[in-house]
Amino acid sequence: SCRLAPSWVKCQHVLRHTFVCLSSELPRSFGFARMAGLLNAIGAACDRGLYSLQSLLLAGTSTKHDKFVTLSNGAKLRYLASFDSDDAVVSDLDNAPLVFCMDGPNVLENFVTQLYSPSQDEGGVVPISLVNRDRDVIAFEPRGTGMSLPTNGFGFTVEEYAEDCIEFLRHHQAQTGYSRFVLVFTCYSAYVAQRVAKAAPELVAGIIVTQAPSIAQECRWMQRVDQYGLMRTPVLGQILNFFASTWLNRRWFGIAVRDRTLRSQLTARSERVLTRGGAFCLASLLQSFATSLLDSNRDDRFASNLPCMAVWGTQDRSHAPTDMDSSRELALGPIEIVRLDGCGHFPELEQPVRFMQAVAAFVSKNSL
Q1: Could you give the 3-state DSSP secondary structure of residue 137?
Q2: CA 175/CA 93 separation, integer angstroms
Q3: Residue 61: is its pLDDT beyond 90?
Q4: Helix (H, G, I), strand (E, B) or coil at 213
Q5: 66-82 pLDDT per residue, tens
Q6: What percentage of the chain reaches a pLDDT higher than 90?
Q7: Which residues, including other chains, have CB under 8 Å from residue 210's CB and lie 6 or more apart?
Q8: Nearest CA-CA partner of 211 in 115, 101, 296
Q9: Contact, 314 vs 340, CB < 8 A?
Q10: Residue 316 and residue 156 in contact, taking contact as beta carbons nearer than 8 Å
Q11: I need a labelling partner for 246 at 20 to 30 A (CA). Which of 8, 171, 199, 361 fits?
Q12: What is the pLDDT of residues 221-270, one digit of tens each?
């Protein structure tokens, strides 16, 4: 084994250099921007094909409890809403609903158990339930996460995610009478929230982002989570992602969540969704989404008059080197930064009481 060790180290360096060059360095170094875009498009098409085939093989895996909003482009976004049941009513229309966007591999099942109707006590404090309160809650899975599959020509760009989100909000606006919403978006979806607020400011009352640094810091984070460039290599990344989704699910929660018991619970729920045909399209996010974010010359910072808050779980191992204060670069005006000790990448699930206390203070202070 001692003789093999140097060879294995050398092999790792060769793999890292080769795949990083194929996925990003080579096209950019030689100015082949169109080639990079074409490769990413092929990778996205690979994801769509894999999940379309899986849907055919696992027909009927959606349960009667799954609810979807069908968009004009044919996409179906799985969601839940506090007002969307037989015996529920819309809360006070003056109180903007909280709209949570799931961050894969997280799924709605985790949101329901940990935050929507939490049962655990934290230090003797009665958990804050979002049900039957004076403010409605909506949560949804964007395409490529959970049971919202990447179909109908979806290319995983930030523009497409924003278009989906705007139509999703307009659907609920028409159904409920709410005029504006407070977006609670995690990680990469924070940059989607920027596009939404820019394109449709009349829909957005306030912004809460979690684990969302500046774009430059986010790009460094993407490189760290895929240090050998395998996931960033079009087609290869999608194939590895699809067939190793269960392993990636376990690996990701293992890095992102601090508490072992909670980690196993979150992992198990997400794994059950993957087993019945759910998606976790990390490779396409690292390819097409990242490229679309970097290639844009737009200034999408949140407007100076838009109330904004950034929440950080301080023990997120994936963001250990990240400058949390760089979140200030996401907005033209002031942005409140809240640090929650004792939790990792998903503070809303790991510390639901403290998270909702911060949210309540934010919406109250800004009269949202």
Answers
A1: strand
A2: 12
A3: no
A4: coil
A5: 899 999 999 999 999 88
A6: 58
A7: 184, 185, 186, 187, 190, 310, 311, 312, 313, 346, 347, 348
A8: 101
A9: yes
A10: no
A11: 8
A12: 888 888 888 999 999 999 999 999 999 999 999 999 989 999 999 999 99
> Six-digit token pair at 240?
């590895």
Computed from CA positions of residues 175, 162, 105, 114, in that sequence, does the dihedral angle turn out positive or negative? negative
**What type of residue is 122?**
E
Tell me the one-letter amino acid at 301.
R
End-to-end CA separation in angstroms for the chain: 62
Cβ-count burial of 178 within 10 angstroms (0-12 exposed, 13-18 middle, 19+ buried)?
buried
**Beta strands per DSSP E along 91-250:** 98-101, 137-140, 145-146, 181-186, 204-210
Bond prior to 352 in cis (omega within 30° of 0): no
CB 98 within 8 A of CB 359: yes
Backbone angles phi, psi at 16, to 5 degrees: -60, -45
Tokens representing residue 130 in the block:
């979002």
> Which tokens is 33 given?
């921007």
* Distances, alpha carbon 103 to alpha carbons 201, 262, 349, in Å: 23, 17, 11
Q: Alpha helix locations (H) across 106-184?
A: 108-111, 158-176
Beta strands in 93-161 (DSSP E): 98-101, 137-140, 145-146
Q: 236-239 long-range contacts, Cβ below 8 Å, gap at least 24?
A: 236/19, 237/23, 237/43, 237/283, 237/284, 237/286, 237/287, 238/43, 238/46, 238/47, 238/50, 238/281, 238/283, 238/284, 239/46, 239/50
DSSP 302: B
Q: Which residue has the tokens 């072992």?
A: 260
Q: What letter would DSSP give residue 127?
A: P
In this structure, are residues 98 and 139 in contact, taking their beta carbons and an 8 Å threshold?
no
